[in-house]
Amino acid sequence: MPPGMKALPARRDAPTLLHVSDYRFGRRHHPATWRHIVGLAPHFRSIVLSGGDGGYFPEGHCDDDRIAAEAGIHVHPLHQPMSALREPAVVASVVTALTQSHGPIDAIIGHLKCGAHAVHLERRLRAPILAMFHGDDANFQITGEIYGPDYRWLRAAPASRFLAVSQNLADRLLAFGMPPERTFVHHLGLELESFKPPERREAARSPRIVMVGSFRRQKGHAMAIRGFAEFFRDCPGASLHFIGQGHRPEHSRLRDELFAFAHRMGLARAVHFHGAVPVDVLPRYLADADIGLQSSVFIPDDRHVEGIPNAILEEMAMGLPVVATRHGGIPEAVLHERTGLLVEEHDIAGLANALARLAADPALRDRLGRAGREHVEAEFCIERQCAGLADHVRRMIADYAAIGAHAREAASLA
Question: Residue 4's pLDDT band (boundaries 50, 70, 90)?
Answer without folding.
Answer: very low
